[in-house]
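re: ur question from the group chat, yeah i did fold both. here u go
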Amino acid sequence: MNILCHIVILICALIISGCSSKYAPSPLTEAPYLERAQTQSRGGITVTAAVLSAKESQKVFGVDLADKGVQPVWVKIKNETESRIVFLPIALDPDYFSPHEVSFLNHQKFQGDTNDKMDKDFDDRGIDLETIKPNEDMSGFVFTNLNHGVKLVNIVLSGDQKTERFMFLFEVPGIETNYQTVDFKNLYAEDEIVDFTDQEELRQALKNLPCCTTAEDGSGEGDPINFVIISDPKDLLAAFIKRRWDVTQALSETGEFSSAGEVYSVSGYKTAPMGILYMYGRRQDVGFQKSRQKEGNRLRQRNQVRIWLTPMRYNGKPIWIASVSRDIGSDINRKKYWFVAAEIDPEIDESRDYLTEDITLSLGVSKLGWVTGVGETTPDNPHVNLLEQPWWTDGYRGVVVLEGGQIPLAELQIFPWEDLEEKHTTEYEDKLNRRDSPLEFKERE
């Protein structure tokens, strides 16, 4: 064999060696994620669930599942009823992955034996549509789409002419969110808390809120305070996560992005930090966003909500105020902060109305309404935010009350305050009345 053949064989060996990596999944007995497991029991059925972080899933399965957009959810179901029950994984994630699909995504080149073992491991550990007989149990992983920060786990079981639903909310290790940096218990002294029981007094208090967010020193007027949420913290978080909003990562103390990758991001980075706005002398307590598109540099196209806890309560429930807007793209022509600033939709009421519709469909809203307070502006005389971006509004704030559990839309109540529909109908009629009729137009011609 000549020296050229030896070189070719050596190069091929190096290529094969470089294309493979050690595949060493951990035994399921090593399961630190189970320390965060949650359990619910009802009607003879016990469900336990746990969500794996990116690091945990890589250790358990021996491959980087998060890099492929996959997040394992461990589920255990114990059936102590007299009937069979069926587990429906599609309720947990309509786009869940099959075990072999996830394995194939992680196959290694020229490693047939390793890939065969990987196929078997994923098949053994995964669960699909499953039937659990009376007095039996089953456990395994459902391979869902990746969620950073917070994940809602919805377990639906069908059987004996009825359906049981078990819903869990998990904080997933891996990122630091806005709300994790806030000491909510000590934000306000006891004598600062005001609890309203009369809805007319509540209305006046919400009308008297400041129009807009500010700069850090309290100066200027930024984006509007155009939404109010009356809710316990867990119900607020659950309602947004149900509707597929993502929590946002907290920016550094200086308000800087830690890397350009946080600004120019692919679709997987749905928890990218938002710019900071201020109320009560502090940055937003909670942030949520919905990314618009799924490929390339799409960070700048998203709905976003910045939320602050107020010192007010309504019948004991905390009152949160929010600034809701929609990023529609970047504008490099802006004079300030063009690198991280996005262009907002200037018709900002659309963003408020979208959130009203979306949060109502969470089926957690017991009551909604509208109050004035932002101050009406028009496209001809718009408000300008801290980044010199124009926006206009009818001046209304959306208000929702959130409860635990599910509330049918037929049971939704309305605050007897301002009538948004009537206002818009009247404005439209006024516009029609101000127009010249076709006859008058012809006569002037």
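okk and heres the other one u asked abt
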Amino acid sequence: MLYDRWLRVVGRCPERVALRELTTGRSWTFRELDAAVKPAARHEPRSVAFIEGNGADFILAVLGAWRSGQVLCPLEPLRTRPCLTTSVPAQVVHLKTTSATSGASRLVAFTAPQLIADAENIVATMGLRQDWPNLGAISLAHSYGFSNLVLPLLLHGIPLILLESGLPESLRRAAELDRFTLAAVPALWQTWLEAHAIPPNIRLAISAGAPLPLPLEQSVFAKYGLKIHNFYGSTECGGIAFDSTSAPRTDAALAGAPLNNVRVSVGQDGCLEVRGSAVGECLWPAPGPNLDRGVFRTSDLGEISNGLIFLRGRASDQINIAGRKVLPEAIESVLAQHPQVRACVAFGVPSPEAPRGEIIVACVAAAPGLSGDSLKQFALAKLPAWQVPREWWFVEKLGANGRGKISRAEWRSRYLESATGK
């Protein structure tokens, strides 16, 4: 089904440029790209094709797997190949690996109609067009890049221009292009802003993979007149919400409105539930209760008001203080307002006084001279006393991953290790 859809795209625009490498100048028309596709080497029926990379070879490998009827499983760099001991269900054509932000990485199984639906929802909601190519600066193997760059190219004929890397000097080369769409992560947008590398010919700017900080969104708009559109999605269900407004948000919790054909509600536990034809088939090989029968139950606490989705943190991150719950985001947003704080993350650790309770720890990267006492007084003016961190841990910097996420679980583990070693 997927390869047949690709052939229809080729038939509609055979001589138009489909894929281009900005650095090398190499390009392929849709006809040339199809001619370069090689069927997979000898393989067992319904075998899984693990593919890696971030260039033209990745696109060709996708098409090769589709043409050969293999199940596709893209892998990001340094990601260990899953050990599969059972056969993939007959209807499944694609396996995604989760990002493991809330636990161990798992596989999510998708059918062809589910991948097609996700691409259609994204293209229609964002208004992607064939005369405005996508500029590829993110991983093609990750769910975000695959849905926003690979599938629009192969299923909708939206050209893709590949950057050599996300470094500022690579993006500066895009100034030679006509208008284009640029999907990236907050960490890249921040790097490009600081390097004065954002070109003037971006038609649509998108950010996903991690929360988009308001100061970043507002700074880019003030300097370039460019609105970065927040995009919220998940590996298990594809795109969920998109902020299509033309001005910067004033509330960092705003994720946007649900994508076309995506239905979002709030479950009894306060977490968002997603329904629609793009929701994955199942977790595989071991099923899970949060993905079943066309419903994905997220661990994101949320609210829906006037058709807009507001994210209120992750249920798993809640801190238990003497029976009362507080979300670390509420603490972090206050601490981040201090002019000497560069970055911060809050988490709970076991309380020595209450075996079932926790105390709050704030891990802070700040300018020299800032003390825990002064930061505590700052927080007391804005937070209830019971929500003010009890322990202050100052570090040189809080490193984020490639998508701009700071792992609370990782820093909590580091803190506990350091505390044990004292």
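fwiw on the second one: Residues 2-314 form a domain with the Rossmann fold fold (CATH 3.40.50.12780). The CA atoms of residues 322 and 355 lie 10 Å apart. idk if thats what u expected
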